[in-house]
Amino acid sequence: MTSPASFSLTGKVALVTGGGTGLGRQFAITLAAAGAAVIVVGRRKAPLQETVKRIEIDGGQAACVAADISVTADIQDIVSRCSEYFGAPDILVNAAGVNLRQPVDDIAESDWDMTLNINLKTPFFLARTVSDAMKAKGAGKIINIASLQSQRAFANSLPYGASKGGICQLTRAMAETWSSSGIQCNAIAPGFFRTELTQAVFDDTERASKLAAQTAIGRNGEPEDLNGPLLFFASSASDYVTGQTLYVDGGFTAK
Hints:
There is one protein chain. The chain is an alpha/beta fold. It has a single domain, classed as NAD(P)-binding Rossmann-like Domain (Rossmann fold), CATH 3.40.50.720. It contains 8 helices and 7 strands. It has helices at residues 22-33, 45-57, 75-86, 109-137, 158-178, 199-203, 205-213, 227-234, and strands at 13-17, 37-42, 61-66, 91-94, 140-145, 183-190, 245-248. A 7-stranded parallel β-sheet has the order 3-2-1-4-5-6-7, sandwiched between helices. Strand 5 (140-145), helix 5 and strand 6 form a beta-alpha-beta unit. Helix 1 packs parallel to helix 2, helix 1 (22-33) packs across helix 8 (227-234) and helix 4 (109-137) packs parallel to helix 5. The chain is globular. The protein starts with 12 loop residues before the first strand and ends in a 7-residue tail after the last strand. The relative contact order is 0.14.
């Protein structure tokens, strides 16, 4: 029987990309509250420091590394820097992402490449790097962030949709590759949550209301709605779950 202790992350180390803002910050705070020592990574140092301060005020352990994880050649060094604080990560949350929301005719090759690089390429190379220490321990949790657009098509967001569709297959491939070494690889696909990536949507109150009406529950998501799924995938409660994408969307994809 699964007990509350199964969801404890005491003694674990979590690395969260994009942890300075939005859902990445929410993930970092949630993991720290469950007992993990958290390292947040992103390009902007000030927001990362704000996340660390919030976690420490709440009694948790946290540190930050300001770096551009989209530069593949730097990933090994970034992981090494992160590991200097609390040790090698037991948990990786690939939360960093970008969505330019451009009309199809405005998408330049550089826009496409940047989106696929940050949203799909970086999660793979980062996961492969941290997997070495996880395999040595015989345990690890890799959590990718998918999207409604992993399954549904939205206009003016083609590169993002392609990258998030790829995340689901990448997650399955990671699970096939590393699960026998004790590493569970899963993905969370949020519905509409107010973040920097979706601010333009929520600034249009009529559009936001229409999206809420498309859910089975009848509302858009609140950050706390992701806490349970995140802790499930990050903890021993999910030790027999791998290669899965969980849609936390209020039933949007069920309709």
